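Narrative of activities, Objective 1.

The group set out to show that a structural description can be obtained from nothing but a protein's sequence at a throughput compatible with the screening campaign. Below is one input-output pair from the validation batch, recorded exactly as produced.
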Amino acid sequence: MNSLMTSLTTTDAQIAMVRSQAEQAKQMAAAMKAKGINIEKIDAAARDFEAVFLSSMMKPMFEGIEPDPLFGGGNGEEIFQDLMLDEYGKNMAANGGVGIADMVRAEMIRQQEGAV
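Output recorded for this entry:
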């Protein structure tokens, strides 16, 4: 019973912390909007940067793979492999990525606040 009460108290504290962070995020977004900083564009640019980074990091993984001579090879396969890796990078960035977008976003916001 005592551990249940401790667990509930911990959960309540976590909920309060998340609510506080959400409120801070709302206030920050309002302040940035008032300064003329477009957070949506910053988010998109940060996500795009991470997608390009991830796709370029995946290219060496596919360099040693030889295509099937019966169904693949040639310039077409090289082009479509690049397109596939670009889409992999976009997908990974859209689903959380590796955290690069968060760092880029924070730096872009910091620079924008200094410029305004």
